[in-house]
Specification:
The protein is mainly α. About 70% of the residues lie in helices and about 5% in strands.
Length: about 375
């Protein structure tokens, strides 16, 4: 009897169990509640560290994103580019192939675009040059993703480390060609490419520099949603992601799916490089990808690999980035403080997923046996 009482006394106060599928409206309320809680914590941190009125800080964030038409277009551009890279990594992630190399794939795609603009600018008609840039950027990104895919499919290497290391190779390639094509000589950078002829510059639509980028990424979003949800390839990606053994059992060629999916993923990263070089900056540096390859992991994961939901998660991160920069400018705070606020908000949002997927159950207290 004493042993029985002792075991009851040592029972944990609570335990964690996995939830069954939660209704969408309940999960949405949990996520909204996490955002509200994050804003409250951010307000407390702001008052404690800076003494600033948190309402003014939040108003400044909104102004930084939507205060002028130029800021709105910058927000849309950042949203589109982040979303494009997020869409690119999603098929691989859904297949449980952890493609951490999007940063390098974007840079290599942008480098191929740069090469076309420098080598063929003025030699080809602008329409043919842009077509060449599109093919070259997609091919370069696809090849960069193909290398780790082949090693994974044939030798079962660790794709996380392999794709991560490919990023550094891509960065050094860009750094090398920045010296080869530097303009002016001795600057160590390529500078604006074809500033007089604008050869290879993607066309403006309605006088808006970034509208074409936004439209292209919107089209990719719709295509990716249909591809993953309704196509045979999308079905095979899902099955391989659930279990490679099951996929083999039902006749799916797992190696083929891995290679094909990574080719597709790399090609979309190449398009992102094309848009960043040909449609945004008209030059390339080692910072052209801007860390989007890593941020895209969070965007894709938070959206549960749903391309349509990714629009919202990418918007949130793009908004926080724009607002953070405005806070640093208006209040004379360094960028680190604005990054603290962004980090707090993301912590709460990511943490809310725990309560969406799991619940805490408290053990009932047992009566003492006399």
């Amino acid at each position: 009897m004493s042993n029985k009482n002792s075991s009851k006394q040592h029972e944990p106060l609570f335990h964690i169990v996995k939830r069954e599928a939660m209704p969408w409206h309940e999960s949405t309320l949990i996520r909204l509640g996490s955002v509200i809680a994050a804003l409250i914590v951010c307000a407390i941190v702001t008052m404690a560290l800076t003494g600033e009125n948190p309402i003014k800080v939040y108003a400044t964030m909104i102004d930084g994103a939507f205060g002028t038409s130029r800021r709105v277009w910058n927000l849309l551009q950042n949203l589109a580019m982040l979303l494009c890279v997020s869409l690119a990594v999603t098929p691989a992630f859904k297949m449980r192939f952890w493609n951490i190399g999007a940063e390098g794939q974007v840079l290599v795609g942008g480098l191929a675009t740069t090469a076309c603009m420098i080598l063929f600018g003025g030699k080809l008609s602008n329409g043919l040059l842009i077509l060449t840039m599109i093919v070259a950027s997609m091919l370069a990104g696809a090849i960069w993703a193909l290398i780790p895919a082949i090693f994974k499919a044939t030798l079962n290497t660790n794709e996380t480390l392999f794709t991560l290391m490919m990023n550094y190779v891509g960065i050094q390639l860009v750094a090398y060609f920045a010296r080869v094509w530097e303009n002016p000589k001795g600057s160590g950078s390529i500078g604006i490419i074809n500033p007089n002829t604008q050869a290879g510059w993607l066309p403006e639509i309605g006088g808006q520099k970034y509208l074409l980028n936004v439209l292209v990424v919107f089209a990719i979003t719709i295509f990716m949603y249909i591809y993953l949800k309704y196509s045979k390839h999308g079905y095979e990606i899902s099955v391989v992601g659930e279990s490679q053994n099951t996929a083999r059992y039902i006749g799916i060629n797992v190696k083929k799916v891995i290679i094909r999916t990574m080719l597709f993923s790399g090609a979309v990263c190449g398009i992102a490089g094309l848009l960043l070089v040909g449609g945004t900056s008209h030059t390339i540096t080692t910072e052209t990808a801007g860390g989007r390859g890593f941020t895209a992991i969070m965007v894709s994961w938070l959206a549960k690999f749903n391309p349509l939901v990714m629009i919202l998660t990418a918007f949130l991160l793009a908004f926080l980035d724009s607002g953070a920069q405005q806070i640093a400018t208006d209040f004379g705070l360094n960028k680190s403080f604005s990054d603290i606020l962004t980090g707090i908000i993301l912590f709460f949002i990511i943490g809310s997923e725990f309560f969406v997927n799991y619940q805490i159950k408290f053990n009932k207290s047992s009566k003492e046996v006399k």
